[in-house]
Amino acid sequence: MDIDSGITAWMLISTALVLLMVPGLAMFYGGLVRTKNVIGTMMHSYAAIAIVGVIWAVCGYSMAFGENILGGWFGWNWDYFFLKGIDSSIMEDYRIPELVYAMFQGKFAIITPALIAGAFAERVKFRGYCIFIALWSLIVYNPLCHWVWDDGGFLYGKAIDFAGGTVIHISAGIAGLVAAFYLGARHGYPKTAMHPNNLVMTVTGAGLLWVGWFGFNAGSSVSSGLQTAQALSATQVAAASGALSWMLIEFAVHKKATSLGFVSGILAGLVAVTPAAGDVPVYGAMILGFIASVICYFAILLKNKLGYDDSLDVFGIHGIAGIFGALGLTFVLRAGSGADSMLEQLRYQTEGVLASLVYSGVLTLVLLVFVDKIFGLRMSPGEQKAGIDHTQHGEHGYRMNNLV
After folding, report:
1. Which of 81, 284, 302, 360 could form a disulfide with 280 if both were Cys (CB 3.0 to 4.6 A apart)?
2. CA 175 to chain centre
3. In a domain, 394, yes or no
4. Any bridge partners for residue 257, and if so which?
């Protein structure tokens, strides 16, 4: 079979764009923490590239896209082990080298556990974090990916998740919420002021995420045609609508718009459209992005009132917008997409959301307890006061006196 060079070229670009999101996330998170934690926080994102990148090549792709085993809990195919059997394989459905598809999907596997780190920023030991994300990738992400995106999965062809609302954002969001409750608040929170160290870095990181998201969503069409253009357009419009919505809320409430609010709106819109990008028209994407920002804004206000310490609002943005996008897409689907009836599709979407919430939430708690008891996760108050840059890495992000 001949390779389609056009589709292959686009998928190579999309793979690189999704990888770009990881340093974008590192900058986004790194700018939001205090100065003494900036390097350690950025390392959480970069460590995922190394750890999950190797796991995916060894067995992750096999677990996600292999034949059903253990009742369909996950997949397995020895040809995918170390990717040894697909070195010269061409996928019939897409006419691209299977290695390209494996690497594209691998970037999704990398960024998902990296997202979780924002929920427990500034208080986890690096070794414990590395062990946790390795286990989480194996036990949580790979089975979820198999259920939704492999043709043997029980949600495949039912719950619409074009690019990862259920598999990625809901699973990471609920994992972050569970981790925030299990580990408890940062030392001194909420009495001690914990201001971002560098909003310029955060805004730049958000820009990289926005650009990378075109590969994330439009690349998930695994084509270079009409649906690719539809997904790209939906992504752009939803992000812009989310940012505009957040700005309008801040103007109404505070009489000024903040950069942090603007980039939070971008993310809310992007997350909400992710499960829907290839299946909703532009006006549908606009609606999803606009409403997602409103919901996430009030979800973060509720978090502050409840007092739990989801440090960088992983659940408040990724979890909430992911749930809204996965359910909300039902009402703005393009004609011909989804099930025969809206009610039936809503049932499928609800099943997907609940499967991700329950499975990721329960298994995350189990893994947190295991890693914490065996290896240690939470830093001591003294270590937190010194900062994770110094205690966990022996480095400093800035060489200036009296920065905390």
Report:
1. 284
2. 11
3. no
4. none
**Eight-state DSSP code of residue 333:** P
Q: Name the one residue in this structure whose structure tokens are 């659940």.
A: 315
CA distance 117 to 42: 10
Separation between Cα atoms, residue 205 and residue 314, nearest integer Å: 15
Q: What distance lies between CA 189 and its chain's CA centroid? A: 25
Q: Is residue 111 part of a domain?
A: yes
Number of domains in the chain: 1
Q: Find the distance separating the first CA and the last CA of the chain, reported in whole Å.
A: 59
Compute the Cα dihedral for 218, 223, 224, 228 and give only its sign: negative
98-116 vs 5-32: helix crossing angle, rounded to 10? 10
For the chain, how many helices (H) and strands (E)? 15, 4
The answer to whether 133 and 49 are in contact (CB under 8 A) is: no
| Span 124-163, pLDDT tens digits | 999 999 999 999 999 999 999 999 999 999 999 999 999 9
**In 10 A of CB 304, how many CB atoms?**
11
The radius of gyration of the chain's CA atoms, rounded to the nearest angstrom, is: 20
Distance of CA 199 to the CA centre of its chain: 21
Q: Look at residue 315 and tell me if it is in a domain.
A: yes
Three-state secondary-structure class, residue 243 = helix
CA 90, CA 88: separation in Å to the nearest integer? Answer: 7
Written as six digits, the tokens of 261 are: 């609010």
In a domain? residue 404: no
pLDDT single digits (tens) 311-365:
999 999 999 999 999 999 999 999 989 988 999 999 999 999 999 999 999 999 9
For Cα atoms 40, 172, 185, give the angle at the middle one, nearest 5 degrees: 55
What CATH number should be reported for the domain holding residue 223?
1.10.3430.10
Name the pairing type of β-strands 74-76 and 96-97.
unpaired
